[in-house]
Design goal:
The protein has 731 residues and is an alpha/beta fold. The chain is built from 26 helices and 20 strands. Helix content is 43%, strand content 13%. α7 packs across α18. 53% of the residues are buried. About 1% of the residues have low confidence.
Length: 731
Amino acid sequence: METGRWRQVDRDKGARVAEAIDEYFLKQVRFARPAGSVVADPDRLLRYFDAQLASRHLDFAARWLQSEGFGYYTIGSSGHEANAAVGAATEVTDPALLHYRSGGFYAARAQQHSDSNPIRDVLASLVASTRDPMSGGRHKVFGHPALGIVPQTSTIGSQVPRAVGLAFALGRAKALRHRTPWPENAVVVCSFGDASANHSTTVGALNSAAYCAHQSVPMPILFVCEDNGIGISTRSPRGWIAQSLSRLPSIEYVRADGNDPIALMRTVDAAVATVRNRRRPVVLHLETVRLMGHAGSDAELAYRSSADIVGDYERDPLVASARALVGAGILTAADVEGRYQAMRETVMGEAEATVDSLRSGESSRLATAEAVMAPLTDRRPTAVAATESSLRGAHNEGRLTLAAMINRTLTDIMTTRPDVLVFGEDVAVKGGVYGVTKGLRKKFGAARVFDTLLDEQTVLGTALGAALAGFVPIPEIQYLAYLHNAEDQLRGEAASLKFFSDAQYTNGMVVRIAGLAYQRGFGGHFHNDNAVAVLRDIPGIVVAVPSSAAEAAGLLRTCVALAAEEGRVCVFLEPIALYHRTDLLDGDGALRCADNSTGDFGTVASHLDGDDLVIVTFGNGVVMSRRAASRLSERGIAVTVVDLRWIVPLPAGDLLHRLARFDRVLIADETRHDGGVGEGVVTALVEGGYDGAIARVSSANSFVPLGGAADLVLLSEDEIVDAAVRMMDAG
């Protein structure tokens, strides 16, 4: 292999900003002189410096790889390498959810694990190689299961609610004697930037941590705000971050200068000890600097002066560490330069080897759609079926309403599985707005059934963290409309974790959501929301909708089994209007049902057995369609009603099998015409080769108004009847 190619290419192709920083560092080192200072642990300072060096040269390598056409990512950690002090002060058994400028932290953590090669790992991630130990070539992330680093997404601050949830869950696990993947004294580390500190997601998560700490709820989390003073191109107001973070109630605030390595390590050690020993949150305000811009494509001169950019070089943390080492007589200036150049040779040699391995085919990138999606499509049907069966209660006789059946099924599940937690807004003491969780707190205790803050991001973040702690969380979102405040916790965090970790981390959960429309005399849009499009396009997610008590138990048990066995993120969407309804037709009690369903994932359910027409529907649509079928029978039209039950992913295979004998399909969709479930059903039928007539009726593209006006825009029983008659008249 030809070595040293990077020297010529780097010189020819520029990377002028990187070269300027490189030259400035070497110049400052040559001026460094012994100062007689004393360092208590010279070896630790050397390891800290080595981690910083590895991170810096990986940033240089990222730009070289891009110039060679092999790299995809140039958001670097240069200037933030002081975070290596946090990586060194915590353990590989301390879960870390990190800011994307965490190269120093990653390298310092890796020093604690003899089998880890952080340089090779990061390079593999930069080129999207399947050798990337975290994502398997799916994303550039800082993450590694052996190092306790949970991969992050690029959504701003989205990891913070999960981190708070994990810290909460560690404390709850101890109280419940539940074994987690982490030791009892583990500390959760969560880092974010100063611009991210202003994001509502971060602000809400910090508030929830303070809320818990105020009540003496264990909250062992170290927040690290890496403050470089600028968010892409926007300056943080001077003093704002210190003021906002230092005033958080019940959270200790400490400040550290990333340009003073000796004091920094003392401050970090003390902060970690406080969190570990007192199980209380601490926020570390770490002053850093951003070198080389936001990313390789960022033209800083468009929004910063040249003097401002060059002035930041003096705050380079590598310069500070070099001065400390020389000042204490640990290394000479020549030693520092030699160490720096040796790390450059190591990193760039590995970068060249990474390129060569791709060129030769020794290593590879994901080459098929099936390989890319493997973490999302992994199935364990036998284990799921066995777990679903184990969750059945001993006494399932009795005809119950939908709400009562969900309550009894939750009781059976929690009795069988002590790792299940139920929580949300008003679910514990009150038992939920509609009484669905009534009595669970009394049966299972406040440690397993509890009320949360009035914040959906916190509810879902608690679930995300609890799942990482080995629980099977069943959080409740009080109304579907409220999910939209926090939907990225499902899209960007929950559903993506298995994908971006190559299934090495999962966060299986069942999110119960009261939703859909047709409530009478109450609420309007915010209590009658029929918008599910945001759930339909999340890869890997599962959404189940029960239409009666008969289906609810099996569907809910299957969702819990999918969460437990496959790490699935499941949404159990409960039609509010059907919670306490008893009759299909007046006085018949037909909606009080026994538990007679297995909820088989990917299968539909059928009602009636007519040959003239099949109505495909779900949720409230099943009740309307069954009533419509009764009216149609008076006209001599025999109808079968098919309940989808699973709306994400659609049970296309079973649906097509059930529809094979019908010449006419009417889709009755209570969601909106555009973006509703019916669109997906039509597509599935057409792509599946169904050659009969297809028609669709749905709700209008409208928010749901208050009172009787709702009937003007929601799908109605009359519309279903009229559409069926038209289909029959058309021949």
